[in-house]
Amino acid sequence: xxxxxxxxxxxxxxxxxxxxxxxxxxxxxxxxxxxxxxxxxxxxxxxxxxxxxxxxxxxxxxxxxxxxxxxxxxxxxxxxxxxxxxxxxxxxxxxxxxxxxxxxxxxxxxxxxxxxxxxxxxxxxxxxxxxxxxxxxxxxxxxxxxxxxxxxxxxxxxxxxxxxxxxxxxxxxxxxxxxxxxxxxxxxxxxxxxxxxxxxxxxxxxxxxxxxxxxxxxxxxxxxxxxxxxxxxxxxxxxxxxxxxxxxxxxxxxxxxxxxxxxxxxxxxxxxxxxxxxxxxxxxxxxxxxxxxxxxxxxxxxxxxxxxxxxxxxxxxxxxxxxxxxxxxxxxxx
Length: 334
Fold this sequence. Notes:
- The strands form four sheets. A nine-stranded antiparallel beta sheet has the order 1-2-3-7-8-11-14-15-16. A three-stranded antiparallel beta sheet has the order 4-6-5, covered by helices on one side.
- By secondary structure, the chain is of the alpha+beta class.
- Strand 5 (about 155-160) and strand 6 form a beta hairpin.
- It has helices at about 5-10, 50-70, 80-85, 95-110, 120-125, 140-145, 180-195, 285-300, 300-305, 325-330, and strands at about 15-20, 25-35, 40-45, 90-95, 155-160, 165, 200-205, 205-210, 220-225, 230-240, 240-245, 250-255, 260, 275-280, 310-315, 320-325.
- The radius of gyration is 20 Å and the shape is globular.
């Protein structure tokens, strides 16, 4: 993106907040919004020096853009595109950063029953929700053909030379269920390195919260109602933690009166049908991103049977709200 255009997108709004209990100093609350990674990324940061805060936020957005260029399979020059282009032919040497997120992705897949699988790329590409056309319903035969190329166990990672190899021709890596969370974590690191400790980074429902709104008030987070635009189904306080929501309302098509969305079950090649949205928490935005995707596919009944350890909130396929005890105990829940 042209740098001048990039800077134009960083128009900032600022308000004053109390920095000390006796109001002897003030902080600026700075808000930024920009489209990245296929969604709107919003940040709010609190700091006494507004010029420094602006610069730190600019660097944080640059970092998220760098991560997108590194990991997006839709970017022709990305390392993930290089791996995909060599599927079934040869291993590809990648950076330690890319290699590490691929290793973590495989570990998540092993831990989460294969319901999180970054080799879902052939299926996501077939449905085309990221295309300018906005998606379509493919023939069932084509879905089955693409499903044969989905298997995280066929991703070979060699530590000694940090190479990645997709063993089957036609396989594709899609990091859509993890890259946003990782980018948020990287942006959070940049902000903290610049001395900014009170902030929120929100990328389309994947959120990391650091510090507080002021000395006496925690940041307040809301969960969207998946069927009523602008409405919330829950609010709670959060500090130094991540929360993520996967929902069927971000990218979808209606065919024959039925909704088809962009969160795919790697067992079937079709969108998950057990929930309208799934929200959960983790220490990092990356893990919260992964777990929300996993829960959405798993569904509320199985999540309750397996006694999923993190707080969760589902809106199931019928619109019913289901939460576990850990969610009910969140501070400030309403």
